[in-house]
Amino acid sequence: MRFSPGDAVRTPRADPPHHSRLPRYARGAVGTVVELGGLHPLADLRAQGLPAEPEPVWTVRFPARELFGQGEHFVTVDVWDSRLEQA
To answer: What's the pTM?
Structure first.
């Protein structure tokens, strides 16, 4: 596995022209891996009718300030492995 709980990760900034399970508000954000949520085919590819092998899906915790510019709470988002990089 590429990541472990506690790792700092970043999501891509790209806004793809197709369906994406990565919410716009979380694009380009830095968060912390909380846990592995299992192995699942990338929904972005499945929505396009393309084959997709299962890959790790991580629960990532983002500070609200990182996502929205304000707030003292946290937001968790499930993010596919191929949509994350080390921060």
So the answer is: 0.93
Q: Tell me the C-alpha distance between 13 and 81, whole Å.
A: 15
Q: Is 71 left (phi over 0), alpha (psi -120 to 50) or beta?
A: left
Query: Which pLDDT tens digit goes with each residue over 6-57?
Result: 999 999 999 888 888 999 999 999 999 999 999 999 988 988 999 999 999 9
**Burial classification of residue 13, based on how many CB atoms lie within 10 Å of its CB (0-12 exposed, 13-18 middle, 19 or more buried):** exposed
Rounded alpha-carbon distances, angstroms, from residue 87 to 10, 50, 70, 75: 5, 29, 21, 18
Distance separating alpha carbons of residues 8 and 72, to the nearest angstrom: 19
Give how far Cα 48 sits from Cα of 12, 33, 44, 51, 58, Å: 19, 27, 7, 9, 22
